[in-house]
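Milestone M4 deliverable, item 7.
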Amino acid sequence: MTEPLPPQAEDFLLWLGVERGRSSATLSAYRRDLAVFCAWLTERGGTVAGADEADIIAYLRARQKAGLASSTVTRSMVAVRSLFRFLVAEELRLDDPTLNVELPKVPRGLPKALSERQVAELLDAVVGLDPLARRDRAILEFLYGTGVRISELTGMSLGDLDLGDNMARVFGKGAKERIVPIGRFARDALVSYLAVEGRGELEPERWSGRDAADAVFLNSRGGRLSRQGGWGVLKKYGAKVGLGAKLSPHILRHCCATHMLEHGADIRTVQELLGHASITTTQVYTMVSRAQLVASYQAAHPRARS
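Output delivered:
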């Protein structure tokens, strides 16, 4: 059973879930970070209500001395800062002790997108027309074709698909709903999988519950395919084409965004497709195509040619 946090922290987590609609995974991450912070305060004889700026700085230094990555330290400090901002907003504290504490700078890594040729090799690695091959082909085509997250794909139900209009409904972070278009290859793969010879062969004699019966993607036992199961599909075909550790569901999301931008898509269109709340998140993909930018500049600008 999860150890309860101080009342102020529990109120904050409740607010995050109810008022802000944060997912259970996000809430669990915040709870873990706050549990470490609160335990550290207790060891020093402090409390959330009485913590001051010196405590926050000391905690930050302790996390850094523990040898944690800058990204881990920053993530944990964001949870602490969010807690105190909540307490001030709710008038449970008069001051925010994190206000003037600067968080570590985290180097911004670029998404490592595969080339279009590599993606084509991955998609062509699925051979055969047995039920699992049909399913796996549909998974890979849908991930690359729509840029959805693996959790969004495995969470889809049959009622979320509209193959007549080539659209699908997915639920992203914070249960935010969005509509994504389905391209021709993804649609053809879905039609093949949803046939009697595909999904129909994976259906059990008796469903374990409504959730499984409504799921688009089933596992070999007739239940809803899990996020881990979706990862397994990618690992299987990634190993086949020699991609190995380079491949993850998020890499296909990167590829979808990067390749669309390289072919002239508007960045706001890509933002809408991926479900990014801020265009700043989407802009990281524009940096991936810097080599293409230089090549295009050298080919097109009259004063750039050698």
